[in-house]
Amino acid sequence: MFKWISSLFSNKKNEQQDAKSPYASVKVWFDENNAWVHWPEKEPQSIAWNGLIGVAVETTDEGPFVEDVWWHLATKDGVITYPSEATGAGELLQRLQDIPTFNNERLIKSMSSTENQTFILWDHEGRHV
User: Fold this and answer.
1) Of 111, 129, 126, 125, which Cα lies nearest the Cα of 8?
2) Which of 105, 10, 23 has the alpha carbon at shortest distance from 63?
C-alpha cells in the first residue's frame, strides 16, 4: 500500500547517499525469526519477532547534515536502535510494514517532521491506532 515509502530508502539515489554516510556502516537485517542491528566494532544485537512489543521512529531537529531519524524496536528486555541511513534499513522497513496494524500514516507524518519527536508506529497493545 505504501511501497513508495520503502522506495525512499532503497532507490539508487539513496544507495549512493548511504555509501557516503557514516551511518551506512551500521548494518540491519532480518530473517523469519529475528532482526539484527550491527554497529561497527560492537557485537550484533538482535530481537525475536515474537518478542517485539513496539516500533517507533524518533526524529530530531538536527538534520539534514547529521542523522535525524532513528528507529527503535522494543522488546520487554530492551530496545535496539538504528539510524535510517543504516545499510538494510529499507528492507527492514518493508518487513516492519508487514506487521498487521503497522501505522503507515504515522510513518509518513514522521518523515516530514523537523522537530524532536517520537512516533509510535506499532505496539502490541494497539495503542498506536
Assistant:
1) 111
2) 23
Pure H helices in 1-129:
3-10, 12-20, 89-96, 104-111
Omega before 100 within 30 of 0, i.e. cis:
no
Q: How far apart are CA 85 and CA 65, in angstroms?
A: 12
Please give the Cα distance from 129 to 122 (Å, whole number).
8
Q: What is the pTM of this model?
A: 0.81
Over range 59-65, report the average pLDDT. Answer: 85
pLDDT at position 71, please?
A: 98
Q: Find all residues with CB under 8 Å of 71, minimum gap 6, and list them.
A: 55, 56, 57, 58, 81, 82, 83, 84, 89, 92
The whole-angstrom separation of Cα 49 and Cα 73 is 10
Q: Show the cell assigned to 100.
A: 498487521
